[in-house]
Structure to design on (475 residues):
């Protein structure tokens, strides 16, 4: 009997609804929310780093360096197990406060992505010539208005391909929540694999799904990139 | 309208960009500022609306002290139009939105009113048909005319021009200068940094010559083009009037 003969592809077929409606939904939700939160906080950190108040820049710089020197999976793990106790200590509660696995992993990912997105947005803001905020100021726009209506939209558009590429990386990284035994896509596949004893099939299938989605998304980003290049 | 009194400015601890500059622009007056590159003329005009801070002296604009920390700078700047060497239109916004943005966000005009003002001004600079385009679709001369219209949309009490034609191809210079000449003839208060001596000759009331951060010459147009008093101004004029 060939090796493929031992494969039970039906196991995958039977698990599809669970894998996609539970697992993939979780993965995509986490990716979307973490990317959105990361972009919002990342932009704030980028503005802090570029602020004329040196101490704000230093705090933001320290945060980014700190986050980037930690392994993500470790932080996901520690955050989940430590935060209830830190919360208890902070609030003086009698018991560790409960933080759901989803909330805990979302906060961790936002914290991480904020650091990465802030570097991208910083580069984007710096790519805008100094004349643009000067022209905005000369028209009477305040610093905040100049950022909101003139600088950030341009920075965001220039950096959109890079931001999306980072989001694809994030999509793959969300699989690290398996350490919290959360049924994200990989977690769901893993659960089925253990239950049915079909590790090879399920992990191969999971790899294939991540690969296809990431590939298609990368292709889309590249097409977007060339379209943006023409418009500018 | 614009009073510049003993202004000093340093870039970093050692380089003095402006040395004890004193001059003024009266209401309705057109003053041309010229001089070799690096003479501080662009720096001086940027100090007038506080795009560049000054370290000594005073600048007073329509009775308001620009370098007073209590001055509401955005509000003050909204009353003075500025046109830049590199146009600085907002590339992500259509021409019409370039003209409407500050009208709405700074002056609080309603969108429809802002559009009416914008279209009137675009018509005036001959670009009404380009309202829906993006800046990158226009030529340099057209972009600079849009930039002038954008500044005028704020109903400024004075206009500052920072080398408005220096980045333009030669054949586009006149279309921009024509708009500026019209503006000057209508009585707009203007301070213009330029090398276009033809423009100065046509509409300037006074010409200021700067060199190495100092105002070397500040004279009525006829006096300046007749017999500049300083050697440096004479030398500069002979160089740029040759061609």
């Amino acid at each position: 009997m060939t090796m493929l003969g031992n494969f039970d592809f039906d196991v995958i077929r039977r698990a599809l609804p669970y894998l996609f409606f539970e697992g993939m939904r979780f993965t995509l939700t986490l990716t979307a929310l973490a990317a959105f939160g990361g972009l919002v906080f990342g932009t704030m950190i980028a503005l802090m780093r570029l602020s004329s108040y040196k101490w704000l820049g230093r705090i933001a710089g320290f945060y980014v360096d700190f986050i980037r020197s930690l392994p993500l999976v470790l932080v996901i793990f520690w955050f989940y197990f430590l935060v209830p106790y830190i919360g208890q200590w902070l609030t003086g509660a009698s018991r560790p406060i409960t933080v759901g696995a989803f909330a805990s992993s979302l906060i961790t990912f936002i914290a991480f992505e904020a650091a990465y997105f802030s570097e991208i947005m910083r580069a984007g803001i710096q790519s805008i010539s100094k004349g643009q905020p000067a022209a905005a100021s000369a028209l009477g726009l305040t610093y905040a208005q100049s950022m909101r209506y003139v600088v950030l939209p341009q920075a965001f558009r220039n950096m959109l391909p890079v931001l999306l590429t980072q989001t694809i990386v994030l999509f793959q990284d969300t699989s690290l929540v398996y350490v919290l035994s959360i049924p994200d896509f990989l977690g769901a596949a893993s659960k089925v694999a253990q239950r049915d004893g079909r590790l090879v099939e399920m992990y191969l299938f999971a790899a294939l799904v991540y690969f296809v989605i990431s590939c298609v998304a990368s292709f889309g980003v590249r097409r977007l990139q060339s379209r943006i290049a023409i418009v500018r | 309208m614009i009073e510049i009194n003993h202004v000093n400015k340093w870039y970093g601890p050692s380089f003095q960009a402006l040395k004890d500059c004193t001059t003024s622009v009266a209401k309705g007056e057109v003053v041309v500022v010229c001089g070799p590159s690096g003479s501080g003329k662009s720096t001086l005009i940027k100090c007038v609306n506080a795009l560049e801070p000054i370290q000594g002296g005073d600048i007073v604009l329509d009775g308001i002290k620009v370098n007073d920390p209590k001055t509401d700078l955005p509000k003050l700047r909204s009353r003075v139009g500025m046109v830049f060497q590199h146009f600085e239109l907002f590339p992500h916004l259509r021409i019409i939105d370039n003209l409407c943005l500050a009208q709405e966000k700074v002056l609080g005009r309603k969108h429809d009113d802002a559009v009416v003002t914008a279209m009137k001004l675009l018509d005036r600079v001959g670009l009404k048909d380009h309202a829906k385009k993006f800046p990158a679709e226009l030529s340099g001369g057209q972009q600079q005319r849009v930039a002038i219209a954008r500044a005028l949309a704020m109903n400024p009490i004075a206009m500052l021009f920072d080398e408005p034609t220096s980045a333009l191809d030669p054949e586009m210079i006149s279309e921009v200068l024509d708009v500026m000449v019209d503006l000057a003839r209508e009585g707009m208060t203007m301070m213009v940094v330029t090398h276009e001596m033809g423009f100065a000759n046509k509409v300037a009331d006074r010409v200021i010559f700067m060199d190495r951060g100092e105002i070397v010459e500040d004279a009525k147009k006829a006096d300046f083009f007749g017999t500049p008093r300083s050697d440096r101004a004479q030398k500069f004029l002979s160089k740029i009037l040759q061609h």
User: Anything to note?
Assistant: The CA atoms of residues 169 and 210 of chain A lie 11 Å apart.
